[in-house]
Design goal:
This protein is mainly α. The chain has one domain. Helices cover 72% and strands 3% of the residues. A hairpin with a 2-residue loop joins strand 2 (254-256) and strand 3 (259-261). The longest helix is centred in the middle third of the chain and has 48 residues, at 125-172. It is globular.
Length: 308
């Protein structure tokens, strides 16, 4: 459903509802709060959001199962459809691709600004390409592979549990003056729950680069060398594979809110990034996603068969 139709637009979206829940709960917990209590409030925020993110779909599915098995399967299928966003990520990054193809750097920067957190105004076309490739590579892990893994383990409720964690990190997990304390718990939790999925995603992406006849040997080499070249223990796992597979250099310093953030480079500068690298990164994401689904489903079936 996701690969064909993409993220549903217009209708009430569970992930957007989680976002609204985070905003309202944060506002409630931090109203007139003292500085020394912000970390505790951030932990309560996390607990409240992930509990609601899990318990509501669990109760809906529990009720559906009491009525009909077919209804249960249909409802959980729709829930999983909302959790996954493969086509959406591809479509948004390809807007950057098509804008650059039309030599419209302003439109490309605007499209990029919708999917990255960094300042885009000062970027040249090569930097725009790299930023788009980076966000596809990074989101392959936490936006695609991790949700699939959690769904395979615990169905849609655990998938929404993970999305609650991931959405919290994206909204409050910043090390700026406002969120350094409030978002601390959310940032650490996101690192923990993405630790294993990000590494599985990286290994699957190496396999995908082999299937796509990219430079899989270099992908493995750069993965081994550069996978920890990031402030996050997880983000560079798939970025390093992608950089190696495409034989380009990613990472480097970026501006966030007009403040320079120094970051190490990932990969070797064997060639200049080109527009087609955005398309190649999306192909890597698709094949990696399919490998995860096929292997994960096979393992789940095998374990269920053995347990029986």
């Amino acid at each position: 459903m996701d690969l064909i139709a993409g993220d549903p637009q217009g209708a009430p979206h569970p992930i957007r509802l989680i976002g609204k829940l985070i905003k309202k709960t944060e506002k409630l917990l931090t109203a007139n709060i003292k500085k020394e209590n912000e970390t505790k409030a951030g932990a309560l925020l996390w607990l409240a959001v992930v509990f609601v993110s899990y318990i509501i779909p669990f109760l809906i599915l529990y009720t559906a199962a009491k009525i009909s098995l077919i209804l249960y399967i249909a409802v959980e299928s729709i829930m999983c459809y909302y959790i996954l966003a493969v086509k959406s990520l591809k479509d948004e990054s390809m807007k950057v691709y098509y804008a650059l193809k039309n030599n419209n750097i302003s439109e490309a920067k605007y499209a990029l600004s919708l999917i990255v957190g960094r300042d885009v105004e000062g970027l040249n076309s090569s930097q725009v390409i790299k930023a788009a490739v980076e966000t596809v590579a990074e989101n392959t892990a936490d936006g695609v592979i991790a949700p699939v893994i959690y769904i395979l383990i615990g169905g849609a409720p655990l998938g929404f549990f993970y999305k609650g964690i991931n959405t919290l990190d994206s909204m409050v997990g910043y090390k700026n003056e406002k969120y350094i304390n409030i978002g601390k718990f959310s940032a650490i939790a996101d690192d923990i729950f993405n630790f294993i999925p990000s590494r599985i995603a990286a290994l699957l992406m190496i396999a995908a680069s082999c299937i796509l006849k990219m430079d899989y040997a270099n992908a493995y080499k750069i993965f081994k060398r550069d996978r920890y070249k990031h402030k996050s223990p997880n983000s560079a796992q798939t970025e390093s594979v992608c950089a190696g597979a495409l034989n380009i250099m990613l990472g480097g310093n970026s501006y966030y809110g007009n403040a320079l953030v120094e970051k190490p480079t990932i990969g070797d500068n064997n060639r200049e990034a080109e527009i087609e690298d955005i398309r190649r990164a999306n192909k890597l994401m698709y094949v990696t996603s399919l490998l995860c689904l096929i292997l994960g489903t096979a393992l789940k079936f095998l374990f269920q068969h053995i347990s029986i």
